[in-house]
């Protein structure tokens, strides 16, 4: 016969076990909700200013707006940026720039946060259409700035109207400050007696493009002739923010020795980088050539086929300037120095493979006067490191 004491002890024990099971189940449920993003660096140097893209579908969440990324080791929330790639009003991916030590793995926990908890950072990656200066499209980050030219500028040339530009080359704006200058320089040019062609401490636009490829414009080579598109015809800004700006450009179909070329592209520029990424969609050719203008042909072309890059280092006004094109080993085929007696048609070309109607390459510059690169060797070292990172991308995995 069970005593009252025995009964009470059994009841307490049973309740304790039930409580323990509830705690364990809650702990398991909590553990399942913890999602960890692992970022692996296989190279023997620290990597930063490389943007990691995490797709919404990978995280399996309904809304990215409440998502934060917390460093597992330090507990520090990362600066992030949400991107709506297709323009449908829903964010498709979250960007961040982790710092990952040599040959190591950095881990970040996916957490739910409020807007006030999200770390704030200045919007240094910026781009826009510029109707007040014909129809440029211009972009920048904290290191460099670029622009391309639109259909109005093209029509002005075709109609013999002064002030137009007929070129699908890429212009370089030589800035030497880390804060944004696009709006300030255009306002100086269009609303004051000043000009962005004069350096008053922030840099200037004195990089001539003309019919050349500038810094990364493309051509299609047929036999010994290079064919170029005209100005872009359509544009769409995709994103601006603390980590990246990107935009879409479309071109009128163009001819390359009897072949019709269909071309569009997405160009992006990330915080801390001197190179814009060009993701070109192209039909009508099995290869393209991305070019660097040789200007007065008083500089030096050098490159490395195995590492996938070509560069041009030249005297430039009272300073020196390096330009370069880099691509992964899948796309990079070879490089060539093309000299012509015609104005602006001398370029250093990177010959790039078109794979499944797509080419991806990086084009950019380094200006000695900006203080980033003091010598040609400094610039070359930067290119080599950038190339290593392209060919050995950070490895991303997700563990629940």
Automatic annotation (TrEMBL):
Keywords of the record: Signal
Organism superkingdom: Bacteria
Signal peptide: 1-29
InterPro entries: DUF4861
Identification of the protein by name: DUF4861 domain-containing protein
Classification of source organism: Bacteria, Pseudomonadati, Bacteroidota, Flavobacteriia, Flavobacteriales
């Amino acid at each position: 016969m069970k005593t009252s004491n025995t009964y009470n002890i059994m009841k307490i024990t049973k309740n304790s076990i039930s409580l323990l099971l509830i705690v364990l189940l809650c702990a398991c449920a909590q553990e399942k909700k913890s999602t960890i993003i692992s970022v692996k660096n296989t190279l023997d140097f620290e990597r930063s200013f490389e943007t990691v893209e995490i797709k919404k579908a990978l995280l399996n969440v309904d809304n990215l707006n409440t998502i934060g990324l917390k460093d597992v080791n330090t507990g520090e929330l990362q600066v992030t940026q949400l991107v709506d790639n297709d323009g449908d009003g829903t964010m498709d991916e979250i960007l961040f720039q982790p710092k990952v030590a040599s040959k190591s793995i950095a881990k970040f926990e996916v957490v739910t946060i409020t807007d006030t908890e999200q770390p704030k950072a200045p919007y240094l990656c910026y781009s826009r259409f510029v109707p007040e200066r014909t129809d440029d499209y211009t972009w920048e980050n904290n290191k460099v700035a670029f622009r391309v030219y639109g259909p109005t500028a093209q029509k002005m040339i075709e109609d013999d109207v002064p002030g137009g530009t007929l070129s699908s080359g890429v212009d370089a704006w030589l800035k030497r400050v880390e804060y944004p200058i696009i709006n300030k320089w255009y306002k100086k040019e269009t609303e004051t007696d000043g000009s962005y062609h004069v350096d008053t401490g922030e840099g200037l636009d004195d990089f001539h493009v003309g019919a050349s490829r500038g810094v990364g414009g493309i051509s299609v080579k047929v036999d010994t002739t290079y064919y170029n598109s005209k100005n872009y015809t359509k544009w769409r800004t995709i994103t601006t923010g603390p980590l990246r700006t990107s935009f879409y450009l479309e071109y009128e179909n163009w001819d390359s020795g009897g072949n019709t070329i269909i071309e569009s592209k997405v160009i992006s520029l990330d915080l801390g980088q001197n190179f814009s990424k060009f993701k070109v969609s192209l039909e009508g050719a099995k290869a393209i050539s991305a070019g660097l203008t040789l200007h007065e042909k008083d500089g030096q072309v050098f490159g490395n086929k195995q590492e996938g890059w070509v560069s041009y280092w030249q005297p430039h006004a009272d300073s020196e300037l390096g330009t370069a094109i880099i691509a992964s080993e899948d796309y990079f085929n070879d490089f060539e120095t093309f000299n012509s007696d015609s104005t602006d048609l001398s370029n250093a070309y990177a010959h790039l493979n078109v794979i499944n109607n797509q080419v991806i390459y990086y084009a950019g510059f380094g200006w000695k006067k900006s203080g980033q690169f003091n010598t040609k060797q400094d610039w070359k070292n930067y290119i080599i490191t950038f190339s290593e990172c392209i060919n050995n991308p950070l490895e991303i995995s997700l563990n629940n």
